[in-house]
Structures are given as structure tokens and as C-alpha cells.
Amino acid sequence: MNGASCAAKISTQPFSLNPTSPTSHDNPLVSPKPTSLFLGSTRKLRLSSSSKLNLHRRSGTVVAVSDVVKQKKSKSTPSLLITKEEGLELYEDMILGRAFEDMCAQMYYRGKMFGFVHLYNGQEAVSTGFIKLLKQQDSVVSTYRDHVHALSKGVPARAVMSELFGKTTGCCRGQGGSMHMFSREHNLLGGFAFIGEGIPVATGAAFTSKYKREVLKEADCDHVTLAFFGDGTCNNGQFFECLNMAALWKLPIVFVVENNLWAIGMSHLRATSDPQIYKKGPAFGMPGIHVDGMDVLKVREVAKEAIGRARRGEGPTLVECETYRFRGHSLADPDELRDPGSHLNPFFSQVQKCHLIQCRAASLAAEKAHYAARDPITALKKYLIENSLASEADLKAIDKKIDEVVEDAVEFADESPVPSRSQLLENVFADPKGFGIGPDGRYRCEDPKFTEGTAHV
Amino acid sequence: MAATFHGVRATVAALSSSSSPSNSFGCKRLISSPSRSFSVRKRASFTVVRSDGSVNFDLNSKGRRAQQLIANAVATKADSSPASSSSKPGHELLLFEALREGLEEEMERDPRVCVMGEDIGHYGGSYKVTKGLATKFGDLRVLDTPIAENSFTGMGIGAAMTGLRPVVEGMNMGFLLLAFNQISNNCGMLHYTSGGQFTIPIVIRGPGGVGRQLGAEHSQRLESYLQSIPGIQMVACSTPYNAKGLMKAAIRSENPVILLEHVLLYNLKERIPDEDYICNLEEAEMVRPGEHVTILTYSRMRYHVMQAAKTLVNKGYDPEVIDIRSLKPFDLYTIGNSVKKTHRVLIVEECMRTGGIGASLTAAITENFNDYLDAPIMCLSSQDVPTPYAGTLEEWTIVQPAQIVTAVEQLCQ
Fold it and tell me: Which segments constitute the Dehydrogenase E1 component domain (chain A) (predicted)?
């Protein structure tokens, strides 16, 4: 298949509203095999790649740009995808993400942090692959699974851990918590706990970039915004509404789908009429790209292109990263639901059911084992060593350094003070006059009880 | 969604039946609030900045523009008095024009101020509040959005977080129920959850309230839903003067502000100063000083109250009427002073009774000024029913002047 030309076609015609868009070739209904209705499914991919049935995940001609990138690279330049420094930076960031989250689990079970804590284990290639390409002024909008995005963006582990401990030294002074990480300094715009609500905010940040350049005449403003969200979000209206607006106004934004196949306990296949999320990009006039989200180098190559497009003012890109979370939805999730039997949709045809029943053989353990075998950190490690970019010792040194960073973060968080009462009313309003005028004619915020946090509001 | 209704036509002769004399009555402001000379107070009733000290008449370009607009408006509103009073200071305009003037001045003053919403650009806004602004400021500063309330409101919030000062228009405030998540979670709470790192200097505004037979969905009384969101301020304008002043103050505020406009007040006419001024977002407005009873009201009900006040005065009562203007937070100073003087309180609101502004106001007065009350607080709210379409039913849903008269008579017995 001529992947290169096809992908090039997509990316050079992002705003074509041509009715014969590339997606029409991809219509599963015209695919030769009846079972191909679900050939595009992630489930099939898991089976095919593990059982070597050689079924293509992506039927038709829309092809992952990552493959193209690989082909291009291997043909044109025999050199490696990354330098040694880049490789070590990626490795360190991924190790930090993994070690930090493992420590979170420990601390949660030890009663040091509370609430819903969603860990990122397994998805590190996405955060690292994308965010490490950003400048400080670029913005990141995350979800409730946001610790590692914050770390990749440069928020110190101490500040994130301390926030999780609910301490005043946390990046949000203990007022945000696990699902609401923010850093103005690092342009991390949150931390959004409801599905999809971060996407409009990210679109707004991208609008600001355009506005600064075109209205405020800040010619050097080429800031890009990344919006991260999951497969479950892609059935939410805000996703579609913002794809439309971002493409309409050519905003500098990249929509990064972390498709980990599960929306808590809802299989992506049971929730989505067409599970190939990247195909929704061309429907809105923007390129849609699928990439192996377990391979940081592939993610990085695709990210480079998408971020570059945004920075050059060529508009938004939708990138679907196929990934997997190694843990339950949150630390409160016993993770009993990820059972392949639950994939069965009662509305599936007999043929489809027969096919899926085969899948039952693949147990939850098999699904997990399949992805565990593709652990993104192990893969990068292997690549670095095989290509002599790093030695075992180099990597061990990083592991050790990160262990110390995480230990230090815990110590710092543990020793930090809890917020004092005076903090309670401080950030309700940016201008505390918002608390209004009291019976004595003075602004209520001038009352000492307000600074003490004991006022009744 | 969003049946596009013809806003201007719907508001033509807005107050013709219920409050035709109200312009001469209700729009009179007490410029200086009575007995407020606390040395510690940092606020003033309003700020007047005289740019050059001279009063310009017909040569003033602003005045000329306003006259043109009035000429247009007069064409659609035959009953307004022509009163070519170019000799008086200030300029006369309609409420929607006052809003536009405030918006336009702030956009000229600060290039970060932008407007976004449905049909606000090329179409000029369903109630023409943004008419002409797209031509003047361009399509990016006056952004016509797709019909996606939750997303464009969220976009405004993202823009505010990153340095802009957006004004988001709900074509009808009721549509913003679709943006409730963004307004509540992100507009209201994000400053707090971010530990104070991000500010959201956004204004969310639009027409609301019970109009003329617009049906339940277009006749929403949203203030009760919005008032308990932490971190936002909410004001309701009621005259061209305070519409402009509150618009400008809301745009300049670092806090997210919801500015409620009433569909039936857009064609109110008033002479307002030529000079730059803003209103205080947190302050109530004394409409009519009196001795016998305190009537607290806001938005359109101000005119029902003033109509009732005429009758009451004829009957020998001297009611004090306060337009609370700030629905969140309440100006407890102005309200308190009045309660201490009259010892009787009547609240008149268009909001629903359950969980409404009146309920909150009653609680606040009871908590703070119970000792000064000689009678239980009375609250006239609209009925807890979806606003009916039929004219008669609609009328019975909201408070009418006769009820206000009866309530005052009862309170003052």
C-alpha cells in the first residue's frame, strides 16, 4: 500500500472540504471481507498482533503517519531517530512518570493522599513523546490523569507530590488535588476532572495565540496548545464542537487522544460506532493520524509534525495514540471489569459475534500481557542500547537519579505544612471585592476574619 | 437549537403597557448615595472622569453618533418622545445602545477585550448590542461562533486564562444552561483550584428574564441557578446609565462577572453623561428614598415597583425603592441602612420563589438586621412554574404592580 503518498495527501489537504475526502476510501462497508466491519477495532489489533493473523488494524488507505515516518526515515536517512541526549531525556522523563506514579500508589495505600487518584502507568510514551517537544510558553491542557503531563511539562515532582498530599507547597497550594494540577509558570492550564471540559479551554488558549499574533501584533507568538484526552471523551460533544472551531479558525492546537481502550469499565468498542478516532479529523477538515502510543519514538515523530504544523499556522491536527493503562481507572478501581466478555455488544450481527467469541479466548490477562510486553519504557531502553545510544550503566544512573527525585518529593511533601485557615478564602476571587460590601459599609474582605479565613461567606 | 427570534422587534415598545412613565420615574438616579461618608471606604458611587472639562454639544462625535442611533430607534418606537434636547448635557440613547457604547469604549481602551457568541458579528447580535463592532474591530475581536454554547464559553475561559478579556454573549441567557458546566466548574472555580495562579477576567452577558410570550425556554430566570456558583459575581442592569456603567465595570473586573440584561428593557431611553464613567459592581442603587417600607428589587421588576410606588404615594405611603443591582454579592450596607430606617422589607423579584434571589436576600437580612425588623420580610417572587406562553398565564406568573401595592399595605398595617 502506498502509505506515504496517502498520508502526504491528508496532511497537505487539511482543509479540503472535498466530498471525496480520503475517508471515503476507508469506508469499512466497501471492504472486501464482511468481518472487516471490525477490522479497524483495537480489539482486532490486539488479536492480530498477538496471534499473527496479519489482519490490518486499519483497512483502506488511510495510514498511520508513524509508518510513513519510519519508511521515510529508513529510506532517506540511515541515521537514528534521536540523538543520545534526546534519548536520555526521553528515558528520564518516562522513568520519572512511572516512578512517580508507582510512588503515588504506595502513598495512597499508606493514607498520605486521598480522593480519586488516576495513574498514568503504561501511557508514558504519549506524554513524553509530545510534551518534551514543547517550549515553556506552549500550553498543555490535561484531564484527571494529569500528574505525568505536569511532570513532563516541567512542574517539579516536589510541587506535584505536595499537591497530592494536600500541602500548601503543592503546585496549587493544596487547593486543586490530583485531578486539578495547574502551573502558570509552565503553562499547564489544568487538570480538568470532567470529561471533555478541558478541550474548549485548550481551544481558547490556542485562540489567544492567534489573537496575539493577528490582533495584538505580537509577530513572534507561535505558541502551541496540546489538548490531551481519552477515547471516552471522543464521544462527547465538546470534542466535536472544538474540532470544528479549531479547524474553522486554523487554531494552533493539537488534539491528542490517549486511546487506552477503556473508559473506566466501558470498552471503547461498546461505546463507539466507529472506533477509529483519527478518522474524525478529516471529517472536520484536519489531518487525523493514528500512532502506536506505546512507542515513544513514533509518537515523537508524529508529534513533531503536528506541533510544527500548529506553530507554522497551518492549523490543528488530531492524533490518536493507541496506548494502554497498566492499572485500573483510578486507585479506587478494583479493575475487575476489563474482561473481554464485556466487549460483546448485543446489537452485533451473528458474524460479528462469532468473531468476537473467539476473542473470549483472549482473557483479561492476555490483553494486559500483550500490552505489558510492549511496555514503552522497556522498548525505549532496548532501542537505546541496541543502537549504542546509551549503556546499561547510563540508564541505571538515570533510574537511580529518578528514585532520589521521587524520594525527595515524598520527603518534601511529607514535611510541608498543611494549609492554614487563612488560606481558605484567599483565592475565591481574584479581586476579593467579589465578597461584597458588609453591613458596616466596608468591603467584607477588609474584615480581619477574611484574612483569618474564619469569616462566614 | 436556538430559535432565532427577532430581538429588536420583540422588545419594541417594551414597557409600553406596564411602565410607560417609568423612564421619567425609574431612571432617575440618586447620584450620591445618602450618608455615606466613611473615611475608610475606597469606593464611590460612580467614577466620572472629565477628559477635557468642556461639555460638547452637537460637535461631539459621540453625541452625533448617538443621535443617529436614536433616530433609527425612534423609527421603530413611535411612542418615545422626540425631545430634541441637544442643549442639555449628556446624550440620550436606548439601553442596548448604552451597552454597546460601554463595550465599544472598553474595546477601544484595551485591545485584549474581545467579544464572542452566536450572531454577534456580521448579524450584529440578536438584540443589536454588538451591531457595527465587527466592522470596526474585525472578525477576530468580534467572533461569530458556531452554535456550541458549552464550547465557546469554555473557549472564552481558556482565552481569559491566557491573557485576553473576553465578553461572551448568550444569544438568550437561557441557552447558557448548555454552558453551565463551563460557567460553574471553570469560570467559577478554576481560580481557586489553581491556587490563584490563573484569573478568569470574563464577562458573560445576554438577554434573559420573562419577555412577551416567548415561551418557557426563552423566558428563563437564571439568577437562581447561577447565584450559588462560588467565585463569580452577578449583576443585573436596569437603566441605560447603569447598563453602560456595569458593562464597563464588569469588563475591567479581574473576577468573572455575569451581566444579566432583560429582554423587555433594551429599548428604555435615558440621557447619560458624555464623560467616561463606570458603576460599582458591588453597590446597590437608591431609586427612590422613602420612610415607610424598603422595597428591594432588580432588573425589570424595578419598573413594576415604580408603577406601584406611584399608587402608594397617592395612597399616602412613602416607600423606599432600592435596585439591588448586584445579585451576588448583596450590598448589605445600602440594604441595611434602609432596613434600619424603615424597619419593613418587601422584596420584589422576577426570579422563582424556590432558591431564588429573594430567598437569599431574606436570609441575609434576617441574619444581619433581624433586630431592626418590625414585621416579617415579605417576598413577592414569580411562580414556580415554567413560564407559560399564553399572555394571561404569563402575566399571572410574574409579580404585577397591584400585588406590590397590596403587599405594602399589608406590611405597613
Answer: 93-335, 371-419
